[in-house]
Write a structure and sequence with these properties.
422 residues; alpha/beta; 6-stranded mixed sheet; 13 strands
Length: 422
């Protein structure tokens, strides 16, 4: 049987046995990718698999790899904010160690194998990190947490750290051991790095996707749909994972995306790393934003005033040169946009009809001066047509409106969504 069919059969069986893992896999696209160095990876709403590596494995091993990637997604590792200048290898190792804390995989995990190889070092050497770190909390941490169960041979840690904490611990450990030119026993970190970097290539911060994962978890709690791996995974998620939607971060990402779009290359300014050997960069740190406000009957003055306050706070730095506002219900309500700085009384805008998003999106598409569009709405309207990818952020009036609308907003190219938590 071909690998693709085996994977689909596994996912179908999970509908009955592992409903939460089934929900995760069906929310991501299964994509064959034989060009990558790793067996399987996740991120950007995809689970990619290397059929060339998987075809030599049995069905149980393939299911194990699929479970591991599903756990990564449930813990939001591919969608979390990365540490500054994060190294892909260490991100994967940290993810493996967290997963190992609640699930003993039937296939090797690089992070677990790495720490297992170091266990004799910390049990036998007097100063395993060198004299500089003798007697320190750093040395004590690894001596305490690097253990192998004598009965099962499984790696076990004592401290229950989250993903980012393990990342920093492993970063420190690898740096100190590498600086002394020493290898970790039989485990070759250099050989593992290429596959590990490849495995985290799709990882990028995405609060919107993390919010969808949270909804699947909440449904599992309500329906008691954790499956056979529920106990440990449930405790891990509840103790370590914060999937809360941060609308301020979404606005900051939107602001950054429209500024980055104005990057130009120049040889008049050298690259900081390569000097004049490579093109330098210059940013036009001014951008124009169009805001479209839904003035149908369900949008209250209180909703709008809170939205107005948030936009003022997020764009106050002056990076955004111009913010214009248009209003719409079934059509545009003013003949031309008005400046956002001006005090706006929502009662003065004649609206309160139905909702049609198309006029606002068409206006944005026709006016090329704007770098991005923010639509403030309750989401109750016909789905608009977006012909090409455009930088659009939809801000919904409430969590309930967001849950109702996010699925169709995702289908629009270039669109992201969040909500006002009031």
């Amino acid at each position: 049987m071909v690998v693709e069919q085996i994977i689909r059969n596994i996912v179908q069986n999970w509908f009955y046995t592992e409903p939460l893992l089934f929900a995760v896999c069906t929310s991501h696209h299964l994509v064959e990718n034989n060009q990558m160095n790793c067996v399987m990876r996740s991120g950007q709403q995809r689970i990619e698999y290397n059929s060339e590596q998987l075809k030599s494995m049995n069905d149980t091993q393939i299911e194990e790899y699929l479970k591991i990637e599903s756990f990564r997604i449930l813990l939001s590792h591919p969608y979390s904010r990365k540490p500054y200048h994060a190294r892909g290898t260490i991100l994967l190792l940290a993810s493996d160690v967290v997963i190992n804390s609640f699930y003993k995989a039937g296939v090797p995990l690089a992070g677990v194998e790495y720490l297992k190889s170091l266990t004799p070092r910390f049990k036998q050497m007097e100063n395993p990190l060198g004299e500089k770190w003798a007697g320190t909390e750093e040395e004590a941490f690894f001596m305490r947490n690097l253990n192998i169960n004598r009965n099962t041979g499984a790696f076990e840690s004592v401290d229950n750290l989250d993903f980012e904490s393990w990342y920093h611990r492993l970063f420190f450990l690898i740096k100190e051991i590498s600086s002394k030119g020493q290898n970790a026993g039989a485990f070759n970190l250099a050989d593992a790095s290429a596959a590990a970097d490849n495995a985290t290539e799709l990882w990028e911060e995405n609060p919107e996707q993390a919010e969808q994962i949270k909804s699947q978890i909440q449904k599992a709690e309500i329906d008691h749909g954790w499956g056979s791996i529920g106990g440990g995974l449930e405790r891990e998620i509840q103790s370590q994972c914060d999937f809360s939607m941060d609308y301020r971060r979404m606005l900051s990402q939107f602001r950054q995306s429209i500024i980055t779009a104005n990057r130009t290359l120049t040889r008049m300014k050298p690259s900081r790393r390569f000097g004049f050997k490579a093109m330098g960069s210059r940013y036009n740190r001014k951008a124009n934003v169009l805001i479209a406000v839904d003035v149908s009957g369900s949008i209250t003055d209180e909703n709008f005033n809170r939205f107005f306050h948030v936009i003022n706070n997020i764009f106050f730095l002056g990076i955004i040169e111009k913010i214009d506002v248009i209003f719409f219900d079934t059509n545009l309500k003013l003949s031309k946009p008005i400046p956002f700085k001006k005090k706006i009384e929502l009662d003065s805008i004649k609206g309160r009809g139905g909702t049609n998003f198309q006029p606002a999106i068409d206006f944005f598409a026709e006016n090329k001066d704007y770098n991005g569009l923010i639509i403030f709405t309750d989401g109750q309207g016909s789905i608009p047509a977006v012909s090409k990818s455009q930088n659009i952020l939809w801000i919904l009036t409430s969590r309930l409106d967001y849950e109702k609308s996010r699925s169709w907003i995702q289908t629009l190219p270039g669109s992201k969504s969040t909500y006002m938590p009031f």
